[in-house]
Prior knowledge:
mainly beta; four-stranded antiparallel beta sheet; binds calcium ion; about 200 residues; 1 helix; 2 domains
Amino acid sequence: MTIHFRSDISFQNTGFLAWYNSFPSGNPLSTPAPFLSVTRPNTNYSCGGFLSQPSGDFSSPFYPRNYPNNAKCVWDIKVQNNHRVTVIFRDVQLEGGCNYDYVEVFDGPYHSSPRIARVCDGARGSFTSSSNFMSIRFVSDHSITRRGFRAEYYSSPSNDSTNLLCLPNHMQASVSRSYLQSLGFSARDLVIATWNGYY
Ligand SMILES: [Ca+2]
């Protein structure tokens, strides 16, 4: 008999443990195979990291499968000078209560910066740094895990300038008030076609 195990390029998990036995072919029921179920704590993963691209995304370990217990992950985000970082939380499914498993957003490098927010189960929303640094920390306690979270970030100029940013599922257009006023318009004159509103 041959067993073939194959894995693809992403999402690690514990894997499997199988048991085999042999028996005389004339008496197949003489040695019934025991049912065996083994779960081990999964420590074979890495999380967090240094993100230096102008935009990107990150998620809890093994997302969208359950994150491990006792996880502590820090993502440090640094974008180019004179830009700010905005992080958008798209999906946050954590153990409820906010004191056991949570995500924290810091306005600069972790350890030396004030906390902007603690993101808990069910949260959505975005947060923007005051400089070109932001850090995100994910913490899980010793029990109960869920799907985790997925977040995206992008950078935008921190000064009052005109800028257009297009990502697969996010678009941002910034037009400075002074530029509009130099043309004789106000911010209320700005209209996005096919959009049900005026800005
Ligand atoms: Ca937990």
